[in-house]
Amino acid sequence: MRRITELWSRLRVLRHHRVEAALSIRVTxxxxxxxxLAQLLQLPLPLWAVLTxxxxxxxxxxxxxxxxxxxxxxxxxxxxxxxxxxxxVPPANEMALLGSLALAVGPLALIAAINPRFSVAPITAIIxxxxxxxxxxxxxxxxxxxxxxxxxxxxxxxxVSFLLxxxxxxxxxxxxxxxxxxxMARALGELLVGLTQGLDVDALHRIQDxxxxxxEQLNVIGAEAERERSAGLAIGPYTGPLLRTLLRxxxxxxxxxxxxxxxxxxxxRTRLEPFLPRIGADYADYLRATGAALEAGRGPPxxxxxxxxxxxxxxxxxxxxxxxxxxGLTDDAAERFFALGFALEQMRNNFTDLARCxxxxxxxxxxxxxxx
Length: 372
Prior knowledge:
Layout: H1 2-15, H2 18-40, H3 46-56, H4 61-88, H5 94-114, H6 121-135, H7 139-163, H8 169-197, H9 201-230, H10 240-259, H11 266-272, H12 276-296, H13 304-322, H14 331-361, H15 364-371
Helix pairs in contact: 2-3, 2-7, 3-7, 4-5, 4-6, 4-7, 4-9, 5-6, 6-7, 8-9, 8-10, 8-12, 9-10, 10-14, 12-13, 12-14, 13-14
């Protein structure tokens, strides 16, 4: 009975890592298939085909497409350049071999540092220059062999990614966007606490940097999704509107963070303290509910609670201004006070755009994009 329970627990873990498990299966099949084909074709270095197949087999079809293209471009450049060096500067002795290797690696390493797409070019050139000294083949033949091996590995890797348990980027975007919205919800609560207690610079950086990293990852996945769309490999909503809306929400949080760098003056803070927890809770709940709607493929949640909380907050602000409380604030305090109200209003407006994006991602088009 205990063994059955343990097996069930392991299966539950795998269920939560379906994408990762599918990737491990694709990588394994790609490695085996490329080795078998390389041996059937009697290629000199099957290892190169296997490594290429493993490298280009990525989490999504769009990522595999980019990895395959970049790897082939880098290998082509490295093979051509390395072959030319091998012909023009033949390694007749040890010193000549060192010179050929330096000429092959130096310029390509510089190019790879400037453009990461060519990161494999120096490695390819090294193999093209050194292999002839080991197996007594010419540099041109060595370059051609490397191109064939890499082309085989790239073809197998991409074919496996496309046919075996294929995963497009759209489900990854949904999961990453929901994760980002959850981070924003947590950050909003922490930032609003800072309005009454203050936040130091380290705390502000910790909150904002985490959201920035999540958005960077989203942009990478978004580029992969658009690559899949351009190649006709997947369908689904455009990623641009969703990513831009999340970026604007992050800007709203940055403004709130600046206002929370130090506590608001007592005259303002005592009036706002009853309302800040409510607006923070309603805004955070909406962010989380929106993330859940994205993952479930359903329409956006209602904005009624958000609007009600903002209206109550605006009524307090209007009362403070009528009573002349804001006129007694210092320039810095007044700037932070009005920046907070502006940021909360902008966030409410961006929630409307977010709701529209969630509506676009819900429905048959999204499901087709997820399973294509």
